[in-house]
Design brief:
Layout: H1 2-29, E1 33-34, E2 40-42, E3 61-63, H2 81-86, E4 101-107, E5 112-118, H3 122-125, E6 129-131, E7 145-149, E8 167-172, E9 175-180, E10 183-188, E11 202-209, E12 219-232
Parallel strand pairs: 5-6, 7-11
Antiparallel strand pairs: 1-5, 2-3, 4-5, 4-8, 6-7, 8-9, 9-12, 10-12, 11-12
Amino acid sequence: MRRKVAVILILIGLLFAGWNGFTWLFQMSSGKEEISANDLVKVDRDEKISIDNTETPVTHKKTAPVNNSSSALKDIDKNTSEQVEENIVSRDYKEYTRGEKVGWLLIPSLGNKYPIYWGTDDETLTQGVGNYVGKYTTPPDGLRHTVLSGHRDTVFQELGNLKEDDRIFVQFEGMQYEYKIKRTWVTDAEDRTVIVEKDEPVLTLTTCYPFSFIGAAPDRYIIEAPLVGKTKM
């Protein structure tokens, strides 16, 4: 009996070791990198961050990864809703093809950056973070609902460590978009109310849940982060 128990425990140990090795290799191939000193664009203290295009451009400088207390992390003027409406970008994005790299997702509190690819099909998500393409969503420049998805056992393995007010940055077509986490929640994997049309610029991150689940996870972990500023790179 003891021998059988020992064999079972050994097999379980080998299974977990193999799974951890597989996810490590998968994560290494997904493109996740550490944020370097030249990745984030810092906004000067005296510059007002705005999500409209009417302000005079200023010179920006690169800096080391910032945290949530950095002077670069400011809220935008809340009276810009009309200006946002006037600067909505209307495009079909046909120049992008499935699986094409289109930008970067940077999360300073995790110290990581992630390549963003066009689409969220299985093949694309093996490369890194996928940009969901649909009639209710748009890339950041559309100033509406931007949805990014990733595997919870690779690129988004640490997503559960993020908390309210943490900052998230998306770099797309020469602009850096800054978002601040408003809330997180868990929902059923079949929930179709997450990817919906929004009237305000919001970033949603989605991944499977629980993070340590082996196999097809039953739920989804959701992060919602409204836009608080954008900066020319």
